[in-house]
Protein backbone atom coordinates (compact mmCIF):
# COMPACT_ATOMS: atom_id res chain seq x y z
CA UNK A 1 0.00 0.00 0.00
CA UNK A 2 1.35 3.43 -0.88
CA UNK A 3 1.98 5.87 1.97
CA UNK A 4 -0.08 9.01 1.41
CA UNK A 5 0.56 12.38 3.07
CA UNK A 6 -1.29 15.59 2.44
CA UNK A 7 1.35 18.26 2.98
CA UNK A 8 -0.64 21.27 1.91
CA UNK A 9 -3.70 22.56 0.13
CA UNK A 10 -1.40 24.28 -2.36
CA UNK A 11 0.69 22.73 -5.12
CA UNK A 12 4.05 21.22 -4.17
CA UNK A 13 6.45 22.74 -6.67
CA UNK A 14 9.34 20.47 -5.82
CA UNK A 15 10.38 18.02 -3.14
CA UNK A 16 13.64 16.43 -2.06
CA UNK A 17 14.35 14.13 0.88
CA UNK A 18 17.30 14.21 3.25
CA UNK A 19 19.65 11.21 3.11
CA UNK A 20 17.97 9.40 6.05
CA UNK A 21 14.45 10.28 4.74
CA UNK A 22 13.51 11.80 8.10
CA UNK A 23 13.27 15.26 6.59
CA UNK A 24 11.97 16.66 3.34
CA UNK A 25 12.60 20.02 1.66
CA UNK A 26 9.56 21.28 -0.23
CA UNK A 27 8.38 24.44 -1.85
CA UNK A 28 4.65 24.99 -1.56
CA UNK A 29 4.24 27.22 -4.62
CA UNK A 30 5.86 30.16 -2.85
CA UNK A 31 9.10 32.12 -2.50
CA UNK A 32 10.13 30.05 0.52
CA UNK A 33 11.29 26.51 0.90
CA UNK A 34 10.29 24.53 3.99
CA UNK A 35 12.06 21.71 5.71
CA UNK A 36 9.51 19.32 7.15
CA UNK A 37 10.43 16.71 9.75
CA UNK A 38 8.60 13.43 10.01
CA UNK A 39 6.81 12.84 13.32
CA UNK A 40 4.98 9.53 13.09
CA UNK A 41 2.53 9.87 10.21
CA UNK A 42 2.80 13.66 10.10
CA UNK A 43 5.24 16.03 8.48
CA UNK A 44 5.86 19.09 10.66
CA UNK A 45 7.45 22.27 9.34
CA UNK A 46 10.67 22.88 11.29
CA UNK A 47 12.71 25.32 9.18
CA UNK A 48 11.84 27.94 6.57
CA UNK A 49 14.48 28.74 3.99
CA UNK A 50 13.63 32.32 3.04
CA UNK A 51 15.92 34.15 0.68
CA UNK A 52 14.42 34.01 -2.82
CA UNK A 53 12.14 36.84 -3.85
CA UNK A 54 10.24 34.97 -6.56
CA UNK A 55 8.70 31.51 -6.83
CA UNK A 56 11.05 28.62 -6.11
CA UNK A 57 11.05 26.24 -9.07
CA UNK A 58 13.25 23.36 -7.94
CA UNK A 59 15.00 21.93 -4.88
CA UNK A 60 17.66 19.25 -4.54
CA UNK A 61 19.12 17.88 -1.31
CA UNK A 62 22.58 16.32 -1.67
CA UNK A 63 22.58 13.10 0.39
CA UNK A 64 26.30 12.90 1.28
CA UNK A 65 27.35 16.52 1.75
CA UNK A 66 23.94 17.40 3.28
CA UNK A 67 23.60 20.60 1.28
CA UNK A 68 20.37 21.89 -0.22
CA UNK A 69 20.30 23.84 -3.46
CA UNK A 70 17.23 25.88 -4.41
CA UNK A 71 16.60 27.83 -7.62
CA UNK A 72 13.90 30.29 -8.44
CA UNK A 73 12.22 32.52 -10.96
CA UNK A 74 14.26 35.39 -9.45
CA UNK A 75 17.17 34.00 -11.57
CA UNK A 76 19.17 33.01 -8.51
CA UNK A 77 20.22 29.80 -6.83
CA UNK A 78 21.24 29.38 -3.21
CA UNK A 79 23.25 26.61 -1.63
CA UNK A 80 22.07 26.02 1.95
CA UNK A 81 24.41 24.53 4.51
CA UNK A 82 23.78 23.62 8.12
CA UNK A 83 26.27 25.58 10.26
CA UNK A 84 26.52 26.52 13.93
CA UNK A 85 25.21 29.98 14.57
CA UNK A 86 27.91 32.41 15.72
CA UNK A 87 26.04 33.51 18.86
CA UNK A 88 23.88 30.63 20.02
CA UNK A 89 25.91 27.75 18.62
CA UNK A 90 22.75 26.08 17.35
CA UNK A 91 22.78 24.53 13.88
CA UNK A 92 21.06 26.76 11.35
CA UNK A 93 20.73 26.64 7.56
CA UNK A 94 22.89 29.38 6.01
CA UNK A 95 22.46 30.39 2.35
CA UNK A 96 25.24 31.12 -0.13
CA UNK A 97 24.30 32.97 -3.29
CA UNK A 98 25.39 31.38 -6.57
CA UNK A 99 26.35 33.63 -9.47
CA UNK A 100 24.28 32.09 -12.24
CA UNK A 101 24.63 34.87 -14.86
CA UNK A 102 21.28 34.10 -16.49
CA UNK A 103 18.67 36.68 -17.49
CA UNK A 104 15.58 34.49 -17.26
CA UNK A 105 14.04 32.28 -14.58
CA UNK A 106 15.92 29.24 -13.31
CA UNK A 107 13.70 26.23 -13.85
CA UNK A 108 15.39 23.10 -12.52
CA UNK A 109 18.39 22.16 -10.40
CA UNK A 110 20.23 18.91 -9.67
CA UNK A 111 23.43 18.03 -7.80
CA UNK A 112 25.94 15.93 -9.70
CA UNK A 113 26.56 12.40 -8.33
CA UNK A 114 29.79 13.47 -6.59
CA UNK A 115 28.03 16.57 -5.25
CA UNK A 116 30.91 18.83 -6.29
CA UNK A 117 28.87 20.46 -9.07
CA UNK A 118 25.25 21.20 -9.80
CA UNK A 119 23.38 22.10 -12.96
CA UNK A 120 20.74 24.84 -13.11
CA UNK A 121 18.42 24.83 -16.12
CA UNK A 122 16.90 28.13 -17.14
CA UNK A 123 14.65 30.07 -19.47
CA UNK A 124 17.70 31.88 -20.82
CA UNK A 125 18.41 29.05 -23.31
CA UNK A 126 21.27 28.00 -21.09
CA UNK A 127 22.25 25.58 -18.36
CA UNK A 128 24.55 26.91 -15.64
CA UNK A 129 27.08 24.34 -14.46
CA UNK A 130 28.12 25.50 -11.00
CA UNK A 131 31.22 24.45 -9.10
CA UNK A 132 32.85 25.70 -5.91
CA UNK A 133 35.78 28.06 -6.15
CA UNK A 134 37.68 27.60 -2.85
CA UNK A 135 39.96 30.61 -3.47
CA UNK A 136 37.12 33.09 -3.49
CA UNK A 137 34.85 30.93 -1.33
CA UNK A 138 31.84 31.05 -3.63
CA UNK A 139 30.02 29.07 -6.30
CA UNK A 140 30.89 30.02 -9.88
CA UNK A 141 29.06 28.99 -13.02
CA UNK A 142 29.88 28.14 -16.58
CA UNK A 143 27.09 28.24 -19.15
CA UNK A 144 26.12 25.48 -21.57
CA UNK A 145 24.47 27.46 -24.37
CA UNK A 146 24.84 25.89 -27.78
CA UNK A 147 22.70 24.66 -29.46
CA UNK A 148 19.82 25.22 -26.98
CA UNK A 149 17.03 27.19 -28.66
CA UNK A 150 14.50 27.54 -25.88
CA UNK A 151 13.81 27.10 -22.17
CA UNK A 152 15.46 24.08 -20.57
CA UNK A 153 12.86 22.22 -18.50
CA UNK A 154 14.85 19.44 -16.84
CA UNK A 155 18.34 18.00 -16.48
CA UNK A 156 19.83 14.73 -15.27
CA UNK A 157 23.43 13.79 -14.47
CA UNK A 158 25.23 10.78 -15.86
CA UNK A 159 26.82 8.62 -13.12
CA UNK A 160 30.30 9.64 -14.39
CA UNK A 161 29.74 13.17 -13.01
CA UNK A 162 30.57 14.72 -16.42
CA UNK A 163 27.73 14.09 -18.87
CA UNK A 164 24.45 15.92 -18.48
CA UNK A 165 21.11 15.24 -20.20
CA UNK A 166 18.77 18.16 -20.77
CA UNK A 167 15.17 18.36 -21.97
CA UNK A 168 14.08 21.57 -23.59
CA UNK A 169 11.03 23.42 -24.93
CA UNK A 170 12.64 23.44 -28.39
CA UNK A 171 11.40 19.80 -28.61
CA UNK A 172 14.87 18.30 -28.14
CA UNK A 173 16.51 16.10 -25.54
CA UNK A 174 20.29 16.54 -25.57
CA UNK A 175 23.32 15.02 -23.92
CA UNK A 176 26.07 17.50 -23.10
CA UNK A 177 29.51 17.32 -21.61
CA UNK A 178 29.63 19.42 -18.44
CA UNK A 179 33.33 18.78 -17.88
CA UNK A 180 34.94 21.36 -15.58
CA UNK A 181 38.70 21.26 -15.70
CA UNK A 182 39.22 22.44 -12.12
CA UNK A 183 36.85 19.86 -10.63
CA UNK A 184 36.69 16.76 -12.80
CA UNK A 185 39.19 14.10 -13.58
CA UNK A 186 39.38 13.19 -17.24
CA UNK A 187 36.40 10.87 -17.79
CA UNK A 188 36.87 7.45 -19.32
CA UNK A 189 35.12 6.87 -22.67
CA UNK A 190 31.40 6.03 -22.55
CA UNK A 191 28.83 5.04 -25.15
CA UNK A 192 28.13 8.75 -25.52
CA UNK A 193 31.65 9.63 -26.67
CA UNK A 194 35.30 9.65 -25.66
CA UNK A 195 36.57 13.22 -26.12
CA UNK A 196 34.48 15.43 -23.92
CA UNK A 197 35.51 19.08 -23.60
CA UNK A 198 32.90 21.41 -22.04
CA UNK A 199 29.73 21.90 -24.13
CA UNK A 200 30.35 18.91 -26.42
CA UNK A 201 26.94 17.80 -27.72
CA UNK A 202 26.99 14.00 -27.52
CA UNK A 203 23.48 13.47 -28.78
CA UNK A 204 20.32 15.30 -29.82
CA UNK A 205 17.00 13.47 -29.93
CA UNK A 206 13.39 14.35 -30.62
CA UNK A 207 10.08 12.57 -30.33
CA UNK A 208 8.28 11.80 -33.65
CA UNK A 209 5.37 14.12 -32.89
CA UNK A 210 7.56 16.74 -31.19
CA UNK A 211 6.43 18.41 -28.00
CA UNK A 212 8.33 20.02 -25.15
CA UNK A 213 10.67 17.59 -23.45
CA UNK A 214 9.48 17.64 -19.83
CA UNK A 215 11.73 15.03 -18.28
CA UNK A 216 15.04 13.32 -18.98
CA UNK A 217 16.85 10.54 -17.18
CA UNK A 218 19.93 8.36 -17.55
CA UNK A 219 19.61 4.70 -16.69
CA UNK A 220 21.59 3.57 -13.60
CA UNK A 221 24.52 2.51 -15.83
CA UNK A 222 24.31 5.77 -17.77
CA UNK A 223 24.23 3.91 -21.08
CA UNK A 224 20.57 4.56 -21.87
CA UNK A 225 18.61 7.81 -21.92
CA UNK A 226 14.85 8.17 -21.43
CA UNK A 227 12.85 11.31 -22.09
CA UNK A 228 9.16 12.14 -21.83
CA UNK A 229 7.65 14.80 -24.03
CA UNK A 230 4.38 16.64 -24.36
CA UNK A 231 3.17 14.47 -27.24
CA UNK A 232 2.09 11.89 -24.62
CA UNK A 233 5.01 9.65 -25.36
CA UNK A 234 8.15 8.39 -23.70
CA UNK A 235 11.32 7.67 -25.66
CA UNK A 236 14.16 5.39 -24.68
CA UNK A 237 17.44 6.05 -26.49
CA UNK A 238 20.30 3.56 -26.99
CA UNK A 239 23.06 5.78 -28.41
CA UNK A 240 24.92 3.14 -30.40
CA UNK A 241 22.67 3.03 -33.52
CA UNK A 242 21.03 5.11 -32.28
CA UNK A 243 18.04 2.92 -31.47
CA UNK A 244 15.10 4.95 -30.17
CA UNK A 245 12.03 3.24 -28.76
CA UNK A 246 8.97 5.49 -28.79
CA UNK A 247 5.97 4.49 -26.69
CA UNK A 248 2.83 6.48 -27.43
CA UNK A 249 0.26 6.55 -24.71
CA UNK A 250 -3.50 6.92 -24.98
CA UNK A 251 -3.37 9.10 -21.87
CA UNK A 252 -2.11 12.57 -20.99
CA UNK A 253 1.61 13.58 -21.10
CA UNK A 254 4.19 12.57 -18.50
CA UNK A 255 6.22 15.32 -16.84
CA UNK A 256 8.64 13.48 -14.55
CA UNK A 257 10.44 10.15 -14.65
CA UNK A 258 12.91 8.06 -12.69
CA UNK A 259 14.76 4.86 -13.60
CA UNK A 260 14.26 2.22 -10.92
CA UNK A 261 16.55 -0.36 -12.51
CA UNK A 262 18.35 -0.86 -15.82
CA UNK A 263 15.14 -2.17 -17.39
CA UNK A 264 12.38 -0.26 -15.57
CA UNK A 265 11.19 3.34 -15.50
CA UNK A 266 8.52 4.94 -13.32
CA UNK A 267 7.02 8.06 -14.85
CA UNK A 268 4.05 10.29 -14.00
CA UNK A 269 2.39 13.48 -15.08
CA UNK A 270 -0.96 14.93 -16.09
CA UNK A 271 -2.63 11.53 -15.81
CA UNK A 272 -2.26 11.75 -12.00
CA UNK A 273 -0.85 8.26 -11.53
CA UNK A 274 2.62 6.74 -11.86
CA UNK A 275 3.08 4.45 -14.86
CA UNK A 276 5.71 1.73 -15.11
CA UNK A 277 7.61 1.02 -18.34
CA UNK A 278 9.88 -1.93 -18.83
CA UNK A 279 12.04 -3.34 -21.57
CA UNK A 280 15.50 -3.71 -23.01
CA UNK A 281 17.32 -2.71 -26.17
CA UNK A 282 15.04 -5.13 -28.07
CA UNK A 283 11.91 -3.22 -27.13
CA UNK A 284 10.01 -1.35 -24.46
CA UNK A 285 6.39 -1.38 -23.33
CA UNK A 286 4.04 0.01 -20.73
CA UNK A 287 4.01 -2.54 -17.90
CA UNK A 288 1.22 -1.06 -15.81
CA UNK A 289 0.62 1.44 -13.06
CA UNK A 290 1.50 1.69 -9.37
CA UNK A 291 -1.90 3.19 -8.62
CA UNK A 292 -4.33 0.29 -8.58
CA UNK A 293 -7.53 2.19 -9.23
CA UNK A 294 -9.68 -0.93 -8.96
CA UNK A 295 -8.77 -1.66 -5.36
CA UNK A 296 -11.26 -0.20 -2.93
CA UNK A 297 -9.12 2.06 -0.78
CA UNK A 298 -11.33 4.72 0.62
CA UNK A 299 -14.95 5.68 0.61
CA UNK A 300 -14.54 8.51 -1.83
CA UNK A 301 -12.80 6.30 -4.34
CA UNK A 302 -15.32 3.48 -4.32
CA UNK A 303 -18.21 5.90 -4.27
CA UNK A 304 -17.13 7.37 -7.55
CA UNK A 305 -16.21 4.37 -9.66
CA UNK A 306 -19.69 2.88 -9.83
CA UNK A 307 -21.65 3.53 -12.95
CA UNK A 308 -19.29 5.71 -14.90
CA UNK A 309 -17.18 3.81 -17.39
CA UNK A 310 -16.05 6.81 -19.36
CA UNK A 311 -14.02 8.35 -16.58
CA UNK A 312 -13.21 11.92 -15.98
CA UNK A 313 -15.26 13.48 -18.74
CA UNK A 314 -18.47 12.61 -16.96
CA UNK A 315 -17.34 13.97 -13.62
CA UNK A 316 -16.09 17.10 -11.98
CA UNK A 317 -16.07 20.20 -14.09
CA UNK A 318 -17.76 18.41 -16.98
CA UNK A 319 -20.71 17.43 -14.81
CA UNK A 320 -20.95 20.95 -13.42
CA UNK A 321 -21.29 22.46 -16.87
CA UNK A 322 -23.60 19.72 -18.12
CA UNK A 323 -25.92 20.19 -15.17
CA UNK A 324 -25.89 23.93 -15.61
CA UNK A 325 -26.78 23.44 -19.27
CA UNK A 326 -29.40 20.72 -19.15
CA UNK A 327 -30.97 21.18 -15.75
CA UNK A 328 -30.20 24.74 -14.86
CA UNK A 329 -28.32 23.67 -11.74
CA UNK A 330 -25.57 26.00 -10.71
CA UNK A 331 -24.51 24.60 -7.37
CA UNK A 332 -22.37 21.52 -7.01
CA UNK A 333 -25.22 19.71 -5.29
CA UNK A 334 -25.35 17.00 -7.94
CA UNK A 335 -24.57 13.44 -6.99
CA UNK A 336 -21.37 13.20 -9.02
CA UNK A 337 -18.19 13.64 -7.06
CA UNK A 338 -15.20 15.44 -8.51
CA UNK A 339 -12.79 13.04 -6.84
CA UNK A 340 -10.57 11.14 -9.23
CA UNK A 341 -10.11 7.40 -8.92
CA UNK A 342 -6.39 7.89 -8.60
CA UNK A 343 -4.64 8.68 -5.32
CA UNK A 344 -3.19 11.93 -6.59
CA UNK A 345 -5.99 14.34 -7.33
CA UNK A 346 -4.06 16.49 -9.77
CA UNK A 347 -0.98 16.49 -11.99
CA UNK A 348 2.09 14.76 -10.53
CA UNK A 349 5.03 17.10 -11.07
CA UNK A 350 7.86 15.19 -9.38
CA UNK A 351 8.87 11.55 -9.19
CA UNK A 352 12.01 10.74 -7.21
CA UNK A 353 13.81 7.69 -5.92
CA UNK A 354 12.98 7.16 -2.23
CA UNK A 355 14.45 3.83 -1.17
CA UNK A 356 16.94 1.37 -2.61
CA UNK A 357 17.41 -2.38 -2.44
CA UNK A 358 20.86 -3.14 -3.74
CA UNK A 359 21.43 -1.00 -6.82
CA UNK A 360 17.73 -0.87 -7.72
CA UNK A 361 15.16 1.60 -6.51
CA UNK A 362 12.54 -0.16 -4.40
CA UNK A 363 10.31 2.80 -3.57
CA UNK A 364 9.65 6.14 -5.26
CA UNK A 365 8.07 9.33 -3.97
CA UNK A 366 5.74 11.56 -5.96
CA UNK A 367 4.38 15.04 -5.31
CA UNK A 368 2.07 17.18 -7.33
CA UNK A 369 -0.31 20.05 -7.79
CA UNK A 370 -2.75 18.54 -5.28
CA UNK A 371 -0.35 19.12 -2.37
CA UNK A 372 0.07 15.40 -1.73
CA UNK A 373 3.22 13.39 -1.18
CA UNK A 374 2.92 9.67 -1.93
CA UNK A 375 5.51 6.94 -1.42
CA UNK A 376 4.99 3.95 -3.71
CA UNK A 377 6.32 0.42 -3.73
CA UNK A 378 7.92 -0.05 -7.15
CA UNK A 379 7.07 -3.77 -7.30
CA UNK A 380 3.35 -3.26 -6.80
CA UNK A 381 2.57 -2.91 -10.49
CA UNK A 382 -1.01 -3.51 -11.49
CA UNK A 383 -2.08 -4.01 -15.06
CA UNK A 384 -3.68 -1.24 -17.00
CA UNK A 385 -6.24 -3.58 -18.54
CA UNK A 386 -8.95 -2.49 -16.17
CA UNK A 387 -8.92 1.04 -17.43
CA UNK A 388 -11.52 2.41 -15.08
CA UNK A 389 -9.01 5.00 -13.96
CA UNK A 390 -10.51 8.38 -13.38
CA UNK A 391 -8.10 9.85 -15.83
CA UNK A 392 -9.12 7.76 -18.80
CA UNK A 393 -11.66 8.17 -21.48
CA UNK A 394 -12.23 4.56 -22.20
CA UNK B 1 -5.92 48.53 -17.57
CA UNK B 2 -3.83 49.14 -20.61
CA UNK B 3 -3.26 45.86 -22.42
CA UNK B 4 -1.95 47.18 -25.72
CA UNK B 5 1.56 46.15 -24.74
CA UNK B 6 0.48 42.53 -25.00
CA UNK B 7 0.11 42.92 -28.74
CA UNK B 8 3.68 44.13 -29.26
CA UNK B 9 5.66 41.64 -31.31
CA UNK B 10 8.70 41.33 -29.08
CA UNK B 11 10.26 38.75 -31.38
CA UNK B 12 11.30 41.41 -33.89
CA UNK B 13 13.64 42.84 -31.24
CA UNK B 14 15.29 39.46 -30.74
CA UNK B 15 18.11 38.72 -33.14
CA UNK B 16 18.20 35.07 -32.15
CA UNK B 17 14.49 34.32 -32.32
CA UNK B 18 13.38 30.69 -32.55
CA UNK B 19 11.94 30.04 -36.01
CA UNK B 20 8.97 27.75 -36.69
CA UNK B 21 11.11 25.81 -39.17
CA UNK B 22 13.57 24.83 -36.39
CA UNK B 23 10.89 22.93 -34.54
CA UNK B 24 10.40 20.05 -36.96
CA UNK B 25 12.17 18.30 -39.80
CA UNK B 26 11.02 19.66 -43.12
CA UNK B 27 9.66 17.34 -45.81
CA UNK B 28 12.67 16.69 -48.07
CA UNK B 29 10.45 16.40 -51.17
CA UNK B 30 9.89 19.14 -53.72
CA UNK B 31 6.42 20.83 -53.60
CA UNK B 32 5.64 19.69 -57.18
CA UNK B 33 6.54 16.12 -56.24
CA UNK B 34 4.24 16.28 -53.19
CA UNK B 35 1.37 17.59 -55.33
CA UNK B 36 1.86 14.83 -57.91
CA UNK B 37 1.92 12.27 -55.11
CA UNK B 38 -1.31 13.65 -53.60
CA UNK B 39 -3.08 13.39 -56.99
CA UNK B 40 -1.92 9.80 -57.45
CA UNK B 41 -3.15 8.85 -54.00
CA UNK B 42 -6.54 10.43 -54.68
CA UNK B 43 -6.87 8.11 -57.70
CA UNK B 44 -5.72 5.12 -55.70
CA UNK B 45 -8.23 5.91 -52.96
CA UNK B 46 -11.11 6.04 -55.48
CA UNK B 47 -10.32 2.53 -56.66
CA UNK B 48 -10.07 1.24 -53.08
CA UNK B 49 -13.39 2.90 -52.20
CA UNK B 50 -14.98 1.12 -55.14
CA UNK B 51 -13.88 -2.12 -53.51
CA UNK B 52 -15.19 -0.81 -50.18
CA UNK B 53 -11.73 -1.09 -48.54
CA UNK B 54 -12.04 1.83 -46.12
CA UNK B 55 -9.03 1.05 -43.86
CA UNK B 56 -6.87 0.61 -46.97
CA UNK B 57 -8.05 3.91 -48.42
CA UNK B 58 -7.44 5.75 -45.14
CA UNK B 59 -3.95 4.29 -44.83
CA UNK B 60 -3.08 5.34 -48.39
CA UNK B 61 -4.20 8.93 -47.92
CA UNK B 62 -2.91 9.42 -44.36
CA UNK B 63 0.43 7.66 -44.63
CA UNK B 64 3.14 10.25 -45.22
CA UNK B 65 0.53 13.01 -45.52
CA UNK B 66 1.78 16.39 -46.81
CA UNK B 67 2.87 18.85 -44.10
CA UNK B 68 4.76 22.10 -43.88
CA UNK B 69 4.67 25.32 -45.91
CA UNK B 70 4.18 25.96 -49.67
CA UNK B 71 2.14 22.87 -50.50
CA UNK B 72 -1.40 24.18 -50.04
CA UNK B 73 -2.67 22.49 -53.21
CA UNK B 74 -1.52 19.06 -52.12
CA UNK B 75 -3.03 19.64 -48.67
CA UNK B 76 -6.39 20.59 -50.18
CA UNK B 77 -6.46 17.52 -52.47
CA UNK B 78 -5.61 15.30 -49.52
CA UNK B 79 -8.28 16.87 -47.31
CA UNK B 80 -10.86 16.59 -50.10
CA UNK B 81 -10.06 12.92 -50.68
CA UNK B 82 -10.12 12.18 -46.97
CA UNK B 83 -13.53 13.85 -46.58
CA UNK B 84 -14.87 11.60 -49.33
CA UNK B 85 -13.75 8.56 -47.37
CA UNK B 86 -15.14 9.86 -44.07
CA UNK B 87 -18.48 10.81 -45.60
CA UNK B 88 -19.00 7.47 -47.35
CA UNK B 89 -18.24 5.29 -44.30
CA UNK B 90 -21.32 3.96 -42.51
CA UNK B 91 -21.24 5.11 -38.90
CA UNK B 92 -21.57 1.53 -37.62
CA UNK B 93 -18.34 0.60 -39.43
CA UNK B 94 -16.25 3.44 -37.98
CA UNK B 95 -14.92 1.72 -34.79
CA UNK B 96 -13.79 -1.33 -36.77
CA UNK B 97 -12.09 0.84 -39.39
CA UNK B 98 -10.23 2.88 -36.76
CA UNK B 99 -9.01 -0.22 -34.92
CA UNK B 100 -7.52 -1.49 -38.19
CA UNK B 101 -5.30 1.62 -38.53
CA UNK B 102 -1.74 1.96 -37.24
CA UNK B 103 -1.04 4.44 -34.41
CA UNK B 104 0.67 6.79 -36.86
CA UNK B 105 -2.36 6.79 -39.12
CA UNK B 106 -4.70 7.34 -36.18
CA UNK B 107 -2.67 10.38 -35.12
CA UNK B 108 -2.76 11.82 -38.65
CA UNK B 109 -6.49 11.16 -38.92
CA UNK B 110 -7.02 13.18 -35.74
CA UNK B 111 -5.05 16.06 -37.26
CA UNK B 112 -7.37 16.09 -40.27
CA UNK B 113 -10.49 15.92 -38.10
CA UNK B 114 -9.35 19.07 -36.30
CA UNK B 115 -8.35 20.70 -39.58
CA UNK B 116 -11.82 19.95 -40.95
CA UNK B 117 -13.55 21.30 -37.86
CA UNK B 118 -11.53 24.52 -38.19
CA UNK B 119 -12.94 25.07 -41.71
CA UNK B 120 -16.74 25.01 -41.27
CA UNK B 121 -18.66 25.27 -44.52
CA UNK B 122 -15.66 24.45 -46.70
CA UNK B 123 -16.27 21.88 -49.45
CA UNK B 124 -18.41 19.01 -48.24
CA UNK B 125 -17.36 19.21 -44.61
CA UNK B 126 -20.06 17.96 -42.33
CA UNK B 127 -19.61 18.80 -38.67
CA UNK B 128 -21.67 15.84 -37.49
CA UNK B 129 -19.62 13.36 -39.54
CA UNK B 130 -16.35 14.77 -38.18
CA UNK B 131 -17.65 14.74 -34.60
CA UNK B 132 -18.80 11.14 -35.05
CA UNK B 133 -15.32 10.10 -36.20
CA UNK B 134 -13.73 12.18 -33.43
CA UNK B 135 -15.75 10.41 -30.74
CA UNK B 136 -14.89 6.94 -32.04
CA UNK B 137 -11.23 7.78 -32.63
CA UNK B 138 -10.87 9.16 -29.10
CA UNK B 139 -12.39 5.98 -27.68
CA UNK B 140 -9.76 3.89 -29.48
CA UNK B 141 -6.64 6.09 -29.41
CA UNK B 142 -7.34 7.98 -26.18
CA UNK B 143 -6.81 11.63 -25.32
CA UNK B 144 -3.10 11.12 -26.01
CA UNK B 145 -3.99 11.20 -29.70
CA UNK B 146 -5.57 14.65 -29.28
CA UNK B 147 -2.52 15.84 -27.32
CA UNK B 148 -0.26 14.74 -30.21
CA UNK B 149 -2.44 16.64 -32.68
CA UNK B 150 -1.94 19.78 -30.61
CA UNK B 151 1.80 19.41 -30.09
CA UNK B 152 2.89 18.21 -33.52
CA UNK B 153 4.29 21.09 -35.59
CA UNK B 154 4.08 19.04 -38.79
CA UNK B 155 0.75 20.69 -39.55
CA UNK B 156 -1.29 19.02 -42.29
TrEMBL record, chain A:
<feature type="region of interest" description="Disordered">
    <location>
        <begin position="289"/>
        <end position="308"/>
    </location>
</feature>
<comment type="function">
    <text>Functions as component of the Arp2/3 complex which is involved in regulation of actin polymerization and together with an activating nucleation-promoting factor (NPF) mediates the formation of branched actin networks.</text>
</comment>
<feature type="repeat" description="WD">
    <location>
        <begin position="49"/>
        <end position="81"/>
    </location>
</feature>
<dbReference type="GO" id="GO:0051015">
    <property type="term" value="F:actin filament binding"/>
</dbReference>
<dbReference type="GO" id="GO:0030479">
    <property type="term" value="C:actin cortical patch"/>
</dbReference>
<dbReference type="Pfam" id="PF00400">
    <property type="entry name" value="WD40"/>
</dbReference>
<dbReference type="GO" id="GO:0034314">
    <property type="term" value="P:Arp2/3 complex-mediated actin nucleation"/>
</dbReference>
<dbReference type="GO" id="GO:0005885">
    <property type="term" value="C:Arp2/3 protein complex"/>
</dbReference>
<dbReference type="InterPro" id="IPR015943">
    <property type="entry name" value="WD40/YVTN_repeat-like_dom_sf"/>
</dbReference>
<keyword id="KW-0677">Repeat</keyword>
<dbReference type="InterPro" id="IPR017383">
    <property type="entry name" value="ARPC1"/>
</dbReference>
<dbReference type="InterPro" id="IPR001680">
    <property type="entry name" value="WD40_rpt"/>
</dbReference>
<comment type="similarity">
    <text>Belongs to the WD repeat ARPC1 family.</text>
</comment>
<keyword id="KW-0009">Actin-binding</keyword>
<keyword id="KW-0206">Cytoskeleton</keyword>
<dbReference type="InterPro" id="IPR036322">
    <property type="entry name" value="WD40_repeat_dom_sf"/>
</dbReference>
<keyword id="KW-0963">Cytoplasm</keyword>
<protein>
    <recommendedName>
        <fullName>Actin-related protein 2/3 complex subunit</fullName>
    </recommendedName>
</protein>
<keyword id="KW-0853">WD repeat</keyword>
From TrEMBL, chain B:
<dbReference type="InterPro" id="IPR036743">
    <property type="entry name" value="ARPC5_sf"/>
</dbReference>
<comment type="function">
    <text>Functions as component of the Arp2/3 complex which is involved in regulation of actin polymerization and together with an activating nucleation-promoting factor (NPF) mediates the formation of branched actin networks. Arp2/3 complex plays a critical role in the control of cell morphogenesis via the modulation of cell polarity development.</text>
</comment>
<dbReference type="Pfam" id="PF04699">
    <property type="entry name" value="P16-Arc"/>
</dbReference>
<comment type="similarity">
    <text>Belongs to the ARPC5 family.</text>
</comment>
<dbReference type="GO" id="GO:0034314">
    <property type="term" value="P:Arp2/3 complex-mediated actin nucleation"/>
</dbReference>
<dbReference type="GO" id="GO:0030833">
    <property type="term" value="P:regulation of actin filament polymerization"/>
</dbReference>
<dbReference type="GO" id="GO:0044396">
    <property type="term" value="P:actin cortical patch organization"/>
</dbReference>
<dbReference type="InterPro" id="IPR006789">
    <property type="entry name" value="ARPC5"/>
</dbReference>
<comment type="function">
    <text>Functions as a component of the Arp2/3 complex which is involved in regulation of actin polymerization and together with an activating nucleation-promoting factor (NPF) mediates the formation of branched actin networks.</text>
</comment>
<keyword id="KW-0206">Cytoskeleton</keyword>
<keyword id="KW-0963">Cytoplasm</keyword>
<dbReference type="GO" id="GO:0005885">
    <property type="term" value="C:Arp2/3 protein complex"/>
</dbReference>
<protein>
    <recommendedName>
        <fullName>Actin-related protein 2/3 complex subunit 5</fullName>
    </recommendedName>
</protein>
Amino acid sequence: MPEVFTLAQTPITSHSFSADRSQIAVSLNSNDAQILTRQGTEWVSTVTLAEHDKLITSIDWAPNSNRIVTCSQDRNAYVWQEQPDAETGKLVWKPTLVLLRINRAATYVRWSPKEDKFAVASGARAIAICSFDPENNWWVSKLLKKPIRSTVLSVDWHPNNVLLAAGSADMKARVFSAYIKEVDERPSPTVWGSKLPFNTVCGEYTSPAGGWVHAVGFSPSGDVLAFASHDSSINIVYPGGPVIHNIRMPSLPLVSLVWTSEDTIVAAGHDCRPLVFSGSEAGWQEAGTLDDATAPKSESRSAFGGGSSVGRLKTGAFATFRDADSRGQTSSSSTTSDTLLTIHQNTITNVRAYDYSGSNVSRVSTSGVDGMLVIWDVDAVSALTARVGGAHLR
Amino acid sequence: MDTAFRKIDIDIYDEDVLQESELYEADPRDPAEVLEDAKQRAGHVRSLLAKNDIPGALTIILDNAPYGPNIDDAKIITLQTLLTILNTTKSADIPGVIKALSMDTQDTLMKYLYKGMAMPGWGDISGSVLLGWHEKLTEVAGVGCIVRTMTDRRIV
